[in-house]
Amino acid sequence: MIAASVLFLALATPHEHHPAKNVAQATPAASGSPSESSVATPTAGGQRTVPATTPATASPYGYRFVPRQPSRLEAGQPQIFAVYINDKKLRSHGAIRIKVETSTNVVKVVSRSAGREGIIPLIAAGDFEATSVLPKIPFIAAGMSVDLEFVATGPDGRKTTVRVPVQLN
């Protein structure tokens, strides 16, 4: 409970927001290299083409959690496609960077821990991101595993929840 409360304090008070490029498939997230051809990148208004000369940058997210999607989905149901965190092992006084990829109809994403919650800011349709610094994690919590809960809300109030396991160090 102490560990989850400490983690919540960092999540509830993001210090800065960083729009990030879409991250590829693997966990840990692979570092990028210059692309050899044009790449279609999704945007809020459709897709845009990135020229072949644009070098890909290394991803700041080392941990990618992809939740199981329901076999039958109601029209308009909000979805969380992936949650990215800078590392699965969160360190005392360390940075925490979070990106939540959702369906474009999601209007709000909330992170929860220990009965408290904080909003992950919307960067673009389907892209919610926050960056913060964790407070000191009590030595008694070191090595503990906790679940971070992310709740995506659609415009009609329907919600989807995903729990992401992390370890405190």
End-to-end distance: 15 Å
- CATH-assigned fold name: Immunoglobulin-like
Instruction: Output the CATH homologous superfamily.
Output: Immunoglobulins
Assigned CATH architecture: Sandwich
Task: Give the strand order of the largest sheet, numbering strands 1, 2, ... along the chain.
Answer: 3-4-6-10-9
CATH C-level: Mainly Beta
Largest sheet: 5 strands, antiparallel
| Overall strand count | 12
| Helix and strand pattern | HEEEEEEEEEEEE
Helicity level, as a percent range? Answer: under 10%
Give a written overview of the molecule.
This protein is mainly beta and 169 residues long. It has a single domain (2-22, 61-168), classed as Immunoglobulins (Immunoglobulin-like, Sandwich), CATH 2.60.40. The chain contains 1 helix and 12 strands. It has one helix at 2-12, and strands spanning 39-43, 46-50, 63-65, 80-85, 89-90, 95-102, 108-113, 116-120, 122-124, 127-133, 145-153, 159-168. The strands form 3 sheets. It has a 5-stranded antiparallel β-sheet with strand order 3-4-6-10-9, with no helix packed on it. It has a 5-stranded mixed β-sheet with strand order 5-12-11-7-8. The chain starts with a helix and ends with a strand. Residues 1-6 and 13-52 have low confidence and may be disordered.
